[in-house]
From TrEMBL:
GO terms for molecular function: DNA binding; DNA-binding transcription factor activity. The lineage of its organism: Bacteria, Pseudomonadati, Pseudomonadota, Gammaproteobacteria, Oceanospirillales. It comes from the Bacteria. One of its GO terms (biological process) is negative regulation of DNA-templated transcription. Residues 74-257 form the IclR-ED domain. Pfam families: HTH_IclR, IclR_C. Keywords: DNA-binding, Transcription, Transcription regulation. SUPFAM superfamilies: GAF domain-like, Winged helix' DNA-binding domain. PROSITE patterns: HTH_ICLR, ICLR_ED. This is IclR family transcriptional regulator. The keyword Transferase does not apply.
Length: 270
């Protein structure tokens, strides 16, 4: 189909309105009516109707003093609602690939389903010797560092509904054996804002875990790296933690979270 044939199906009014929005969004935060009409190269009467329509619908805002126009709140709302609708795996996969490249460690995204952690995205380090988890792997929430971070988003009532018994199921050495012990661990994790766990679930494997927040400020998932050592070297700990924190911030932002997420406690150690 030729360009001429394609253009005959366009709606002129819609095209002009979108052209005005794109012109304002490029580098001009505010423009007068005359500037808009000149830049989009349409008759003033046509520009006036388009601008009035966009202002009425909340896509343009007119400054009460100068009369200049800028993008309205509905433009921002459309953008935030779009990014908030994106799936955490869809937006997170390229981020954890970059995280793997920066750290040299296998990287993961996981969510919680009841008392299970589910790995929903992963990338392996080139020299990874431990391939314990794959997409779809389920592990007990209370026995994993990822699960502990996911639990930090629960209230006490929600936590007790999830674990109604005082004793935790399938307790293993090194993990909490009671509901209260787990709750205290989770509260420490919540205050810290991240988890560094050394040989917590499997001997010789350490992890660094940060939360991923959605547009409502709720914990949607977690991002982590798996470090194949019993104890993370002190000289490497901050560098690795910084990379995971940055990945957390990036994915949270892509999901529409506007506050400070994983980086808020970057400088604090437990």
């Amino acid at each position: 189909m030729s360009n001429k044939d394609e253009r005959k199906y366009l709606i002129p009014g819609l095209e002009r309105g979108l052209t005005i929005l794109m012109e304002l969004s490029r580098s001009h935060r505010e423009m007068s009516f005359a500037e808009i009409a000149k830049r989009v190269d349409i008759p003033k009467a046509t520009a006036y109707r388009a601008i009035q329509t966009l202002e009425y619908m909340g896509f343009l805002r007119r400054h009460p003093t100068t009369g200049h126009y800028s993008l309205g709140v509905n433009v921002l709302r459309l953008g935030f609602e779009y990014v908030a609708s994106l799936d955490v795996v869809q937006v997170g996969q390229p981020v954890i690939e970059s995280l793997r490249d920066a750290t040299g460690c296998s990287s993961h995204i996981a969510i919680r389903d009841g008392q299970d952690v589910i790995y929903v995205a992963r990338v392996s380090a080139a020299n990874a010797t431990v391939r314990r988890v794959s997409v779809g792997t389920r592990l007990p929430v209370h026995r994993t560092s990822l699960g502990r971070m996911l639990l930090t988003g629960l209230s006490r009532a929600e936590f007790e509904a999830l674990y109604p018994d005082d004793e935790l199921p399938d307790a293993k050495p090194g993990s909490p054996d009671s509901r209260e012990a787990l709750w205290e661990l989770v509260q420490a994790d919540r205050r810290r804002g991240y988890v560094v766990a050394e040989s917590y679930f499997q001997f010789g494997i350490s992890s660094i875990v940060y939360p991923i927040y959605n547009a409502d400020g709720e914990i949607e998932a977690v991002v982590s790296i798996m470090v194949p050592v019993h104890e993370i070297p002190a000289e490497e700990r901050e560098r690795l933690r910084g990379h995971v924190a940055e990945a957390s911030e990036t994915i949270s932002g892509l999901l529409g979270h506007q506050g400070s997420a994983s980086g808020r406690n970057l400088g604090q150690e437990p």
